[in-house]
């Protein structure tokens, strides 16, 4: 019974999925990829290149690459582990993977859209994200320790979308 459910229970759906894929990508072109390469092309990677991320980030609202809050932000991102970085990426972009071309290929709701950090809010506020725009609204916290605590709270304790 289990074997039937696993193998035959989704046979029709699997066949239709493959047929649909072949409508978009020619079967001969698809055969040159192994499963890992195909997954990378379709889903991106979860290995974060910090230099790529930083060089493909835009700043708004008074922030720039040399602003003390931005320097703290990148120190924190370098400090946290890859799983937390992926949570941060998920929080801001809505996805926990990076396109295989890197951060320069991030897309928003209207096409290509770089990761953006904008100065917003009061010191008491948590950071907020706009996933359609790959934008993190980051308040100007008075210290790196407060920023880290607020950032980690935002990425670990929130999971809902809101409408303003």
Automatic annotation (TrEMBL):
What Enzyme Commission number(s) appear in the record?
A: 2.3.2.26
- Return the InterPro entries for the record: E3_ubiq-protein_ligase, HECT_dom, Hect_E3_ubiquitin_ligase
Tell me the keywords, alphabetical order. Repeat, Transferase, Ubl conjugation pathway
Cross-referenced PROSITE patterns:
HECT
Organism, as annotated? Gnathostoma spinigerum
User: Which residues does the entry assign to the active site, renumbered to this chain?
Assistant: 132 (glycyl thioester intermediate)
Q: In which pathway does it act?
A: Protein modification; protein ubiquitination
Known catalytic reactions? S-ubiquitinyl-[E2 ubiquitin-conjugating enzyme]-L-cysteine + [acceptor protein]-L-lysine = [E2 ubiquitin-conjugating enzyme]-L-cysteine + N(6)-ubiquitinyl-[acceptor protein]-L-lysine
The protein here is known as: HECT-type E3 ubiquitin transferase
Q: Which SMART domains match?
A: HECTc
Q: What is the lineage of its organism?
A: Eukaryota, Metazoa, Ecdysozoa, Nematoda, Chromadorea
Q: Name one GO molecular function term.
A: ubiquitin protein ligase activity
Q: Which PANTHER family match?
A: HECT DOMAIN UBIQUITIN-PROTEIN LIGASE, HECT-TYPE E3 UBIQUITIN TRANSFERASE
Q: What class of enzyme is it?
A: transferase
The HECT domain is annotated at 1-164
């Amino acid at each position: 019974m289990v074997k039937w459910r696993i193998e035959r229970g989704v046979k029709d759906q699997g066949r239709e999925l493959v047929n649909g894929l072949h409508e978009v990508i020619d079967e001969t072109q698809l055969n040159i990829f192994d499963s890992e390469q195909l997954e990378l092309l379709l889903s991106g990677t979860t290995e974060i290149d910090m230099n790529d991320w930083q060089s493909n980030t835009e700043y708004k609202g008074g922030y720039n690459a040399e602003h003390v809050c931005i320097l703290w932000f990148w120190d924190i991102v370098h400090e946290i582990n890859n799983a937390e970085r992926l949570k941060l990426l998920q929080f801001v972009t809505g996805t926990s993977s990076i396109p295989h071309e890197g951060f320069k290929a991030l897309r928003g709701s209207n096409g290509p859209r770089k990761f953006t950090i904008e100065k917003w809010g009061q010191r008491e506020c948590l950071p907020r994200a706009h996933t359609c725009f790959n934008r993190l609204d980051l308040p100007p916290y008075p210290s790196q320790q407060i920023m880290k605590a607020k950032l980690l709270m935002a990425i670990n304790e929130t999971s809902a979308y809101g409408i303003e």
